[in-house]
Amino acid sequence: MKEERPLILITNDDGIYAKGLRELIDVMCLFGKVLVVAPERAMSGMSAAVTLENPIRVSEVEKNDNYESYKCTGTPADCVKAGFNLFGERPDYVVIGINHGPNSGTNIVYSGTMGATMEGCLHGVVSIGFSLCDFDADADFSKSKVWVARIFQKVVEKGLPERVCLNVNIPSGEIKGVEICRQTKGHWEEEFEKHKDPYNHDYYWLGGTFINEEPDVSGTDLCVLENQKITIVPVKVDYTSLETVDEMRKWEF
User: Fold this and answer.
1) From CA 151, how far away is CA 33, in angstroms rounded?
2) In this predicted structure, what is the pLDDT of residue 1?
3) Residue 182 carries which DSSP code?
4) How do the domains of the chain map onto residue ranges?
5) How many whole angstroms separate alpha carbon 64 and alpha carbon 178?
6) What stretch of H or E contains 26?
7) Comparing C-alpha atoms, which of 91, 87, 85, 167 is closest to residue 131?
8) 3-class state of residue 41 by DSSP
């Protein structure tokens, strides 16, 4: 009797035609059946946003013996929800990426890649978000693909705790190993660049600079990436600060 291959759901936040998505499909086809449901356009910075005020449309892009792919008008989190609800078979794993650009530090809060990863985790399956520290649309994924396969295989073997997913960032260029670490503390100093439209109305272009609050602290993801190592940060979808719960129970109201 032939063993049934697991179903791996893939999405990203760079869009259905991003090179990183194609590279991830190649890797995941080695491990199981692949279902791709990805945004029809770039959705970076969407975090775990879902579409509530507009219809969501899903249409086929490609289907062959190795995988089937669909584009979706919704967000990365919408794509994961669609993958669990519209295709008849429940995914066994959710794998996101490979993102063009890092999702290190507190950028996890804004990341569509990690928003989709956490959505998969909320559905109770092993979920991993992969990012390459290279924003180039034609980035070289050859080295990162080897590590994506190795990390995925290890996670399949070991499993993950309930409601824990992984944020994996891979340096560009030489890779000197892997380190389990925590996300770096930091914040964005926003810049609202003011412009005028053709009707002389003001509009703003949002930009900013990321401030690393722990530039010299070892064991943080930004520090590890600077040393050309892959970072793996376990992420909980339960945001509760348990130590604060215990402290606040002492308050009198």
Assistant:
1) 18
2) 41
3) B
4) 7-183+215-237
5) 34
6) helix 19-28
7) 167
8) coil
Predicted pLDDT of residue 212: 85
Q: What is the pLDDT of residues 176-218, one digit of tens each?
A: 999 999 999 888 888 899 999 999 999 999 888 888 888 888 8
The residue assigned the tokens 């086929």 is: 60
**How many CA atoms within 13 Å lie on the side-chain side of 58?**
18
Residue with tokens 């722990």: 214
| Residue position matching structure tokens 């995941």 | 28
C-alpha 112: how far from chain center: 6
Question: pTM of the full predicted structure?
Answer: 0.92
Question: What does 213-244 look like in DSSP terms, one character per residue?
Answer: S-TT-TTBHHHHHHTT-EEEEEEES----HHH
For residue 91 the two structure tokens come to 């995914």
C-alpha torsion sign, points 90, 92, 97, 102 = positive
- Point out the residues of the chain with pLDDT beneath 50: 1-2
CATH number of 7-183+215-237: 3.40.1210.10
Asked if 117 and 240 touch (Cβ cutoff 8 Å), the reply is: no
Q: How far is the CA of 231 from the CAs of 54, 105, 224, in angstroms?
A: 37, 11, 7
